Amino acid sequence: MAVIDSRTAGVLRPGDSENTGEVETRLRLFVSDVTGLEAKLVRQRWLPKPGTQPSLEVSWCAVGIVGIKTWGLPYIRGRKGTISDPASGDVKSEAHQTMQCMASFYGPQAQELADIFRSGARLPQNNDYLQSMGLSIQGVDDDIRHQPDFQLQQWVDRYDVSFRVGRKVSRTYGVRTIASADVEIITERGKL
User: Of the candidates 109, 95, 78, which has an alpha carbon nearest to the alpha carbon of residue 175?
Assistant: First the structure.
């Protein structure tokens, strides 16, 4: 059973996390701002209930995360607690991740919007904006892939842009200072 701090035996669960939630929402807003598409026309991929798809005359985008790579082991940073306060002291685990993302553009302007996004995502000023949301562009593929979909008995244009976004994820664990222990330590010279 998972516990929230080390005063109880068992597996520790993080008490607090930073930069872990709503990544798809931040990506949607970024794609919307870079391309000029209305936010409601930039959708999250693979929703449980996708809703009604825009008509064939409307240009829109679906964006999502296809994979996440964590680089090495997390850096563990601790804050020493005090013996008089057994609830003090935490350990923060910090990891750097790269998320492989895909933006698929549909509709009559799909190719142009894919090209606008690919170019705009590479601009330092746009990356500064994304960094203000806790993410950072690590790379954008040179290729735009034409991947038409067969929908409603006809072919619909779809252009895919792959890109990589980095983030630092922090989680806080309640690792407590040992205040006392019910043990005897015996050495060559006797009890300590």
Answer: 78
